[in-house]
Amino acid sequence: MARENPTWGHRRIRGELARLGYPIAASTVWEILHAAGISPAPRRAGPTWRQFLTAQAHAIIACDFLVVETVLLKRLYVLVFIEHGTRRLHLAGVTAHPTGAWTVQQARNLIMDLGERIAGLRFVIHDRDPLFTSMFREVFTSEGLRDITTLLRTPRMNAICERGIGTLRRELLDRILILKERHLARVLQEYLVHYNGHRPHQSRCQRPPDIATQPSRDVTELDDLRSIRRKPVVAGMIGEYHHAA
User: Fold this and answer.
1) How do the pLDDT tens digits run along the chain, 245 residues long?
2) What pTM did the predictor assign?
3) CA–CA separation, 106 vs 139, rounded Å?
4) How far is 25 from 42, CA to CA, in rounded Å?
5) Which runs of consecutive H residues, i.e. helices, occur in 93-178?
6) Which of 157, 159, 176, 219 is least surrounded by Cβ atoms within 10 Å, i.e. has the fewest?
7) In the chain, what are the domain boundaries?
8) Alpha-carbon gap, residue 88 to 210, rounded angstroms
């Protein structure tokens, strides 16, 4: 009980035990906690960051910058957002010269794209990049979201967004040469359709972000297996598999 409820002291735990039919003295509960190395509340630590992310996943959206080098050695910046609960990916914008004003405008565009779904979000997570200005944070706080800034040199605090960016690199950007800004934007938009509409995610029981349920088929039916066809997407870099019509 103490580990599952960090704010409970020995008297609160004693009361819960009494309701379960175990009338133990408060001093006995304290001795058990002390022997187990658990400090009394409220000095016990709260939930870990992982526990917080898991419990609040449906209410969190995170963002970060993806940096891409073109074949002409020009550096491009992509502002990426990801919803923790659904793993839905948003590519806010691509630019060679990001500024605070540009970042603010991409945040406003995202709010418009989210529409009514913004009401289900409560937190926005990002690092301490100076491009995330006070005006950027205001865009989200005005919609009722709480702004959470990660600690310095702690990428794990924004692990889901970092993982999404890593997926973009491994599955696409490490396998294709980018010519210029427009080319990158087009390729990323094509990948976005695949990522949100088809790519399976382990955290969602292999469901893509935009798919609520998976189809169910009998794997013993060989005719069904023979009807599977590969559809190349994103300039042929990635394959999607479907049953033939």
Assistant:
1) 777 777 677 787 887 887 778 888 888 888 888 888 777 665 555 567 777 777 788 999 999 999 999 999 999 999 999 999 999 999 999 999 999 999 999 999 999 999 999 999 999 999 999 999 999 999 999 999 999 999 888 888 899 999 999 999 999 999 999 999 999 999 999 999 999 999 988 888 888 999 888 777 665 655 566 777 888 899 888 888 887 86
2) 0.77
3) 10
4) 20
5) 100-114, 134-141, 159-171
6) 219
7) 10-46, 51-204
8) 7
Phi then psi dihedrals of residue 238, to 5 deg = -130, 145
Residue 226 class from Cβ within 10 Å (0-12 exposed, 13-18 middle, 19+ buried)?
exposed
* CATH of region 51-204, choose from 3.10.530.10, 3.40.50.410, 3.30.420.10, 1.10.3720.10: 3.30.420.10
The tokens describing 132, both together, are: 């995330």
